[in-house]
Amino acid sequence: MQKKQLIMEKALELxxxxxxxxxxxxxxxxxxxxxxxxxxxxxxxxxxxxxxIIDHFMMEITADIDYLVKSSISNDKLxxxxxxxxxxxxxxxxxxxxxMLKEQLHSLNQELISKLHYYDQILDQAIxxxxxxxxxxxxxxxxxxxxxCIRGFMGTYxxxxxxxxxxxxxxxxxxxxxxxxxxxxxxxxxxxxxxxLAELCKIAIPEELTKEKMIKSxxxxxxxxxxxxxxxxxxxxxxxLIKPVYSPAIVKGLLENIRNHxxxxxxxxxxSQYFGT
Length: 277
Prior knowledge:
Low-confidence stretches: none
Number of helices: 15
Number of domains: 3
Order of helices and strands: HHHHHHHHHHHHHHH
Structural class: mainly alpha
CATH topology of the largest domain: Tetracycline Repressor, domain 2
Number of strands: 0
Radius of gyration: 20 Å
Strand content: under 5%
Distance between the termini: 30 Å
């Protein structure tokens, strides 16, 4: 495991137990079995570490959902799988989410707030894509309302993981929300959210993704990874980015090689957007 990833995972354990403020850098380094100097080579401060953990989680979940709704999974299973994947991710990170809600993220800076809005927009786009897949022209008039309803279900039912100490049946919850969503799609007749209103709710996205920025991100990740199929795939993807030589099928295979690696999910998403795969 890379040192940066180790610090994030071990710090997350302490934050969940003690909270942000009560956890010191010294405690984090002791828990990791590293020196303070090694910590500061990876993160400038505890606040930067906290922001990196939040950023990493949002990258993972948005990349996973975007891949899910654009994959070859059948439409009959798509909505159920969408909800199950979302709530499974919430369940996995529920301890950290409780800490964030309790401490109200007073350390957040404007850069991360903008990033969180950016991830929200990616999720919105993925949900709209899913709605179009599932309901086609029949759902066109209500797709933005339906998107807000789905986001509402995600937010409201996530409280089951964050505030109550009991086991949630993810399969039953996902089936229930699948049914509710289909009923709304079938019977809603008075849409409220128009495309114009939805556009007004958007914020400016970060700067356009360029080849130079992609190469910079790839180089950084290649340096971080140990020798592995993921690292080899990144090297080949970088070569293809500089001078396209591979077929779409090979590029797709290389992306599959890196997609499930926790440190490469976001790069996989960016590559997919850049190459249109």
